[in-house]
């Protein structure tokens, strides 16, 4: 168990230095100036860094509304997904840290009383964009990471303290936010072993997940070696 604590702690210490590698060659060019719904969303988002918290939250709700009210009428799917992922990441990032909410509280007009899993919604928007424009994966990963880092750090801390239910909750969010992360795979294996479950295949999956980046990222190389 000491080995697990050391490994998890080492991964946590390295996390701040982790870098993201672009998934594909080419320049990412997402057009967000049209149609008018996207332009309106950009205007609202430009106001997020000024004004009182209540005012900025209204701007955020307006952003979500214009992007989701009549999505079939927005003939720029890539731009819509990019802006929607960004504004949802704003809701999920500190100091708001909202991961489960009434849809209406975030600005959705349809099914306003239903709950939304914000981490999953971020991944859905960005995954659609990444599938259509693989060259933009590095850009979306940068935004994903702004929310993911706090979740994976918390998962690591709770693992080190043997607070496994809390660790699992944070790790579940981390997996939704950055499903390709070698750290997620590694901590999933650590969690399974601490719970007394079979972990060999999970460690092997972490090893495989880390292999692609290990040659260029010493932090991921350590994850690979620990796995």
What is the strand and helix layout of this fold?
Layout: H1 2-14, H2 36-46, H3 53-68, H4 77-92, E1 100-102, H5 103-106, E2 115-117, H6 118-132, H7 137-160, H8 164-177, H9 182-194, H10 200-214, H11 218-226
Antiparallel strand pairs: 1-2
Helix pairs in contact: 1-7, 2-3, 2-4, 3-4, 4-6, 4-7, 6-8, 7-8, 7-9, 8-9, 9-10, 10-11
Mean pLDDT: 89
Structural class: mainly alpha
User: Largest sheet, order of strands side by side?
Assistant: 1-2
Euclidean distance between termini CA atoms: 14 Å
Q: What proportion strand?
A: under 5%
In DSSP terms (H or I, runs of 4 or more residues), the helix count works out at 11
* Poorly predicted parts: 1-24
Give the overall silhouette.
globular
Let me know the largest β-sheet: 2 strands, antiparallel
Helix proportion: 55-70%
In angstroms, what is the radius of gyration?
Answer: 19 Å
- The arrangement of helices and strands along the chain is HHHHEHEHHHHHH
How many β-strand runs?
A: 2
Structural key phrases:
227 residues; mainly alpha; 11 helices; 2 strands
Explain this structure to me?
The protein is mostly helical and 227 residues long. The protein is 66% helix and 3% strand. It has helices at residues 2-14, 36-46, 53-68, 77-92, 103-106, 118-132, 137-160, 164-177, 182-194, 200-214, 218-226; strands at 100-102, 115-117. It has a two-stranded antiparallel ribbon with strand order 1-2. The longest helix has 24 residues, at 137-160. The protein is globular and about 50 Å long. The model is unreliable at 1-24 (pLDDT under 50).
């Amino acid at each position: 168990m000491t080995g697990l604590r050391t490994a998890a702690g080492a991964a946590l210490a390295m996390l701040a230095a982790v870098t993201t590698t672009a998934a594909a060659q080419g320049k990412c060019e997402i057009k967000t100036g049209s149609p008018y719904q996207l332009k309106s969303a950009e205007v609202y988002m430009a106001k997020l860094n000024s004004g009182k918290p209540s005012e900025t939250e209204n701007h955020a709700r307006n952003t979500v509304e214009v992007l989701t009210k009549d999505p079939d009428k927005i003939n720029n799917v890539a731009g819509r997904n990019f802006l929607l992922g960004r504004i949802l990441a704003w809701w999920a990032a500190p100091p708001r840290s909202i991961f489960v909410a009434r849809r209406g509280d975030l600005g959705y007009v349809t099914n306003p009383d239903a709950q939304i899993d914000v981490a999953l919604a971020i991944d859905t928007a960005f995954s659609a964009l990444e599938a259509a424009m693989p060259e933009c994966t590095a850009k979306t990963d940068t935004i994903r990471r702004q929310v993911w880092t706090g979740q994976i750090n918390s998962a690591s801390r709770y693992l080190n303290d043997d607070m496994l239910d809390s660790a699992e909750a944070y790790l579940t969010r981390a997996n939704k936010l950055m499903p390709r992360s070698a750290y997620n795979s590694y901590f999933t294996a650590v969690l399974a072993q601490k719970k007394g479950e079979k972990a060999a295949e999970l460690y092997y999956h972490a090893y495989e997940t880390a292999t692609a980046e290990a040659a260029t990222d010493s932090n991921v190389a350590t994850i690979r070696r620990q796995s």
